[in-house]
Write a structure and sequence with these properties.
Layout: H1 3-8, E1 20-23, E2 28-30, E3 39-44, H2 51-62, H3 64-69, E4 72-78, H4 82-92, E5 99-100, H5 105-109, E6 113-114, E7 119-120, E8 123-127, E9 133-138, H6 148-155
Length: 159
């Protein structure tokens, strides 16, 4: 990860860049549609069907009720096509829809696109109901991920 990517990422207190992305539900999802309604965990992951990404998304499914009970919508997003993400979602029996950033616009807006590899780095942005970034973490190594306990602790900051 380069320092440029970190500088381009929204920081705590910044308005989260709005976007609309294709979803495995078949409908487009806009970040702004959650404003005033739900907090959002935007979770960038590099590629479907890879080891760390699979483990991470299984954990999101296992703890789905904890996130939902705290009023948090989990939006996992990768550069994979919607068709690939649907297969991934079905294979893992995920409870959350996945978003496709196939054109890499969202990854660029959040400063997490690895231009050399052309996929996003693993990164998390916790966005409150007003659309402000309240917590974020960009992994220095894509084989690492945040544990849900750490993310859930950050969610307590929203109340």
């Amino acid at each position: 990860m380069t320092s440029t990517q970190l500088q381009n990422s929204p920081h705590v207190g910044d308005v989260a860049p709005d976007f609309t992305a294709a979803s495995t539900s078949g409908k487009d999802v806009s970040l702004s549609s959650f404003r005033g309604k739900r907090n959002v965990l935007l979770a960038f992951f590099p590629l479907a069907f890879t080891g760390t990404c699979t483990k991470e998304l299984i954990c999101f499914t296992e703890d789905f009720d904890q996130f939902s009970g705290k009023g948090v919508e989990i939006l996992p997003i990768s550069v994979d096509s919607t068709a690939s993400l649907k297969e991934f979602k079905n294979k893992l029996q995920m409870k959350t829809e996945l978003l496709s950033d196939f054109k890499r616009d969202v990854s660029r807006a959040y400063g997490v696109l690895n231009e050399e590899r052309f996929f996003s780095n693993r990164a998390y942005f916790l966005i409150d109901k007003e659309g402000l970034v309240r917590w974020s973490h960009v992994e220095g190594n894509n084989s690492e991920r945040r544990e849900n306990s750490e993310i859930l602790a950050a969610i307590k900051l929203l109340s």
